[in-house]
């Protein structure tokens, strides 16, 4: 058999209700207050205090009364007052916009107050004590619930304000980090007679996991380096800033300097990266190429990177050389592949994000050794050879193709294409011959 549900069990109050009675003469009002407390639905009777009805005439003082109680009982103005003051209209007007709910006992012979408020409950002055007690108990519960919700709302607002400030600070830090990262990238590509350089660089977010560099190594050689850290965002960007400083380019010798061949450079880079990354399991893919300006001799090596491509208006080939990504094992040895970049040919190095960026016939662009380069690459190579603007026009056309591609507006990965197009054999640059080719 179930126990009957009482008002106390249905609306439990952890502590006594704070009841304020607005009346002129507390002694005269005791005839109403005492029966109401005796009929209180909860086992814990309310804590009662009285306040003069004239407090309703001053908004600030009335607000103080409201804040100090869970329920307000307004007795008829004639109760215990030698000079009756009907405060019904005043109380009804004051109740707008406050959290506390009130019960108003109105004289039956007087008209209803002209003002009204949703948190004001009107009962006839002759209402039974049990009815008044039940109404006040419900009002107290509603008041406490409303105040608790308001406290939660204010707490949520403060938490949201803190979260917004933290997010803004984080965004500022990200923008500063992105600005620092951009300083690691070339501001301008080299201007070399007989050669054209181009780059298409689109980070997936403010910070990129891709890094590229093009620099003249000596009077007759320049190098191209492209690397891609696993993942993207802050961690990948920090990895790339580390890797960009670890690539060995030259060694000092007794006669000057020696250019480090690409395979040896990646082997030494891998060892240094593996030693410095600590317990992190992150890896980096990379491709490094050195080109002789005089005869187009091309040396390149790759580590877990999409294969480099040599292409022209007449066709192209994917260079099937390379080893595992950097950081897998400390003692990996990478080999150098010797090729030649002929007049009218382009060397194209891409990050893996590029393979998913261009959609052609509803299939991803895959660079597969032993197969022809994908159509977007071939179009770029053809434009580089035939367009009046050369490689610059070709990369602009590819950029427009990316803009018109289908799919999400938010690219899933960083996109980088680093290219060099050979127009004709170059005699070199007027720089001091301080390096010797390996």
Question: What topology does this entry show?
Answer:
Layout (H helix, E strand, L loop, with lengths): L6 H4 L7 E5 L3 H13 L8 E5 L7 H9 L3 E4 L13 H7 L6 E6 L13 E5 L4 H56 L10 E8 L7 E7 L4 E9 L4 H13 L3 E4 L2 E4 L2 H15 L7 E9 L4 E7 L5 E4 L2 E4 L18 E4 L5 E5 L1 H4 L3 E2 L2 E2 L10 H12 L3 H14 L11 E8 L12 E2 L2
Parallel strand pairs: 1-2, 1-3, 3-4, 4-5, 10-20
Antiparallel strand pairs: 6-19, 7-8, 8-11, 9-10, 11-12, 12-15, 13-14, 13-16, 16-19, 17-18
Helix pairs in contact: 2-5, 5-6, 9-10
What report would you give on this structure?
The structure is a single chain. The protein is α/β, with parallel strands linked by helices. It folds into two domains: 7-152, Response regulator (Rossmann fold), CATH 3.40.50.2300; 185-436, Phosphatase 2c, domain 1 (4-Layer Sandwich), CATH 3.60.40.10. The protein contains ten helices and 20 strands. It has helices at 7-10, 26-38, 59-67, 88-94, 129-184, 234-246, 262-276, 352-355, 375-386, 390-403, and strands spanning 18-22, 47-51, 71-74, 101-106, 120-124, 195-202, 210-216, 221-229, 250-253, 256-259, 284-292, 297-303, 309-312, 315-318, 337-340, 346-350, 359-360, 363-364, 415-422, 435-436. The strands form five sheets. It has a five-stranded parallel beta sheet with strand order 2-1-3-4-5. It has a five-stranded antiparallel beta sheet with strand order 6-19-16-13-14. It has a five-stranded antiparallel beta sheet with strand order 7-8-11-12-15. α2 (26-38) crosses α5 (129-184), α5 runs parallel beside α6 and α9 (375-386) runs antiparallel to α10. The protein is rod-shaped and about 115 Å long. 37% of the residues are buried. Mean pLDDT is 78; it is low at 1-13, 80-85, 359-363 and 426-438.
